[in-house]
Specification:
alpha/beta, 7 strands, globular
């Protein structure tokens, strides 16, 4: 088990982040966020929200990369997906909770709402349930933990991640499923695909992912078939969009 992350002594009470905007145009300007997130599609949603809010976003897609990042940089907020390729996000949450100087906010996130309890028990201040698609809700949650940010009216807007990011996630899952994963690998892929499906509002894929993650689930043919169909449709749409118009 990796040792807890240690930094400088804790900041004094009443510490206020410098150079933070309090206007509604860029409500999170000056905030640095690390997203520990394996889904490119989910991270694309976060990127769009951070871009609009004025926050800086960095991404680590594994626990190992997140720990390497945290040894060098000190983000203000860390958002940790609970299901990652190299372990559970709760472990990193515990490490940050025990750090001598922890980020101002450590939040768990998952496509499974049951993850809220385990994230908070591990020491997270809050929890973001996927899909992450409400700009106003995102800013409202973060502002609870960032001193120096006065309340501001935030106009909500729909967030539409790049469909190519979704295609990338599905291609990665298809490749992993083709290797006949063991029970642990199946549980990880089921959780990964559940989060992706929730972001894409794909109820059929979400049901298949939940079923694949149960101990008594059978083969993965249904899940593979659904992913293949979606990749075929995406490839056809890409090819059609790239086809030049006839004179």
């Amino acid at each position: 088990m990796p040792s807890p992350l240690t930094h400088d002594p804790p900041l004094p009470p009443g510490f206020v982040l410098p150079n933070l905007a309090t206007g509604a145009e860029l409500p999170l300007q000056g905030v640095t966020i690390l997203a520990v997130e394996d889904s490119r599609y989910a991270c694309e949603a976060l990127r769009l929200m951070c871009q609009r809010a004025g926050a800086r976003l960095r991404r680590a897609d594994t626990l190992a990369r997140a720990r390497a990042h945290l040894r060098v940089y000190r983000p203000d907020v860390v958002i940790i997906d609970l299901g990652l390729p190299d372990g559970r996000g709760e472990g990193l949450i515990r490490e940050l909770a025990m750090a001598r100087q922890r980020p101002l906010a450590v939040l768990g996130t998952s496509g499974n709402p049951d993850g809220r309890g385990s994230a908070l028990a591990a020491g997270a201040e809050g929890f973001l349930e996927k899909p992450l698609e409400s700009f106003a809700a995102f800013c409202t949650v973060l502002r609870r933990y960032l001193p120096g940010l006065a309340p501001a009216l935030i106009e909500d807007a729909a967030i539409h991640p790049d469909p190519l990011a979704l295609q990338d996630d599905l291609s990665r899952a298809a490749a992993a499923l083709s290797t006949e994963p063991d029970a642990a690998g199946r549980r990880y892929l089921a959780g990964f695909l559940l989060g992706v499906a929730r972001h894409a509002h794909d109820n059929a894929l979400a049901r298949a992912a939940r079923d694949a993650g149960t101990p008594d689930s059978g083969d993965l043919m249904l899940l593979r078939g659904l992913i293949d169909k979606r990749l075929d449709v995406a490839s056809l749409a890409t090819a059609f969009a790239a086809k030049p118009e006839s004179a």
